[in-house]
Amino acid sequence: MIIDAHAYCFPPLGEANGFPSAAEHLRYVQREMADHHQPVWRLRDGARVGDNSMLSDPEDGTLAGLTDVAFRSGGHGRLVWTVDGEDYAKQYLPPYMSDLSHPPEQMVAQMDYVGVERAVLHTNPIMGLLNDYLGDCVQRFPDRLIGLASIKEWEIDSDPEGQGLEVERAYAKGLAGLQFVVNARFRNGVHASWDGPECRPFWDGVAALGRPILFTIVPHGPRPDLEGYLAELRTWRGWLERYPEVPAVLTHGFPWRMFMEGERICLPDAIFEPFRASGARLQLLYHISLGNVWDYPYPQLHSTTERLVRELGSERLMWGTDMPNVERFCNYRQTLDTFRVHHRGVIDDRDIDNIVGETARRLFDGEG
Asked: N or C end: fewer C-beta atoms under 10 angstroms in the chain?
């Protein structure tokens, strides 16, 4: 079975999408774009001019640091803003996305064409607070789509009961697990640990539900660095040791760009500590991070995959794409064939089968 362990469906990004208003949702999108590596370009002539400081104070990584630039959806995958009468953009999504939406019918059509049997629909405040929307996607395509719930991560300490009830409500709508985006707390100005004493009532309740929890942990802050990232992984390790019975996944993989050395990725040994202390799984989303650094078929990734198989075992690794976002760099089939075709002989066929589907199938089928 081939399963894309990390994909998205969402309404147009210029709409409210579960936030109180479209303006509030777009504030969150603007904040994320202010840290995003896609280049800024001027719409008038396509020139690569300007930088992320147009969108937010570089010293303030929270929503409070945003600048007023009439940030908006620009159509065709673009997010657009205006400074001194000049329009600028980032190409966050592929150009075929005319209204910046990705409905389930389009996702399933992509899957049909490439030969992907199931996809796990992730969530992020960039796309919106979408439990109802994703529940509907899963109900319409129950044999093809697996959905993850979202919460307001920044409220699990101030309102643990309310956020716990939202998880239960989302599960009742057919969603299969929870995605927890650590960085959403920082964006909302919450700097307390997401695993502190005030958060324990939330985590105890969610852990008791027994569903997989997928953690998105990325470097954050005005100057994200390795030590800050490793500190977050140490917090995650503490969580994993407290709830060893809960299936857990680190989404996206590691921040691959942080560890690039020439034509290789060199991962520090400390990065594996949470996995050595638990049975947690790791997603391999190479392409969304590195698809504009190296070219298909990405032979530079082979040594990294070999090491991950040695360190963790392929039964803890799963392929994901970030579809449709990834198609600003390479097409859907290429993300799959990077493993299905071009890792043949690099790792065993059994390892490839685990990575492109069997690990995710076992996770969501409850097989440990």
From this structure: C
Q: What is the mean pLDDT of residues 17-39?
A: 96
The pLDDT of 170-183, averaged and rounded, is 98
Q: Is 295 helix (H, G, I), strand (E, B) or coil?
A: coil
Same domain? For 42 and 173 the reply is no
Q: Can you tell me whether residue 214 is helix, strand or coil?
A: strand
Average pLDDT, the chain: 97
- Cα 6 to Cα 322: distance, rounded to the nearest angstrom: 5
* Number of domains making up the chain: 2
Taking Cα atoms as reference points, which of 86, 98, 100, 95 lies closest to residue 42?
A: 86
Element housing 203 (H / E): helix 200-208
Distance (Å, whole) CA 125 – CA 152:
9
Strands 213-216 and 177-181: parallel
Residues above pLDDT 70, as percent of the chain: 99
Q: Kindly tell me the number of DSSP H helices and DSSP E strands found in the chain.
A: 13, 14
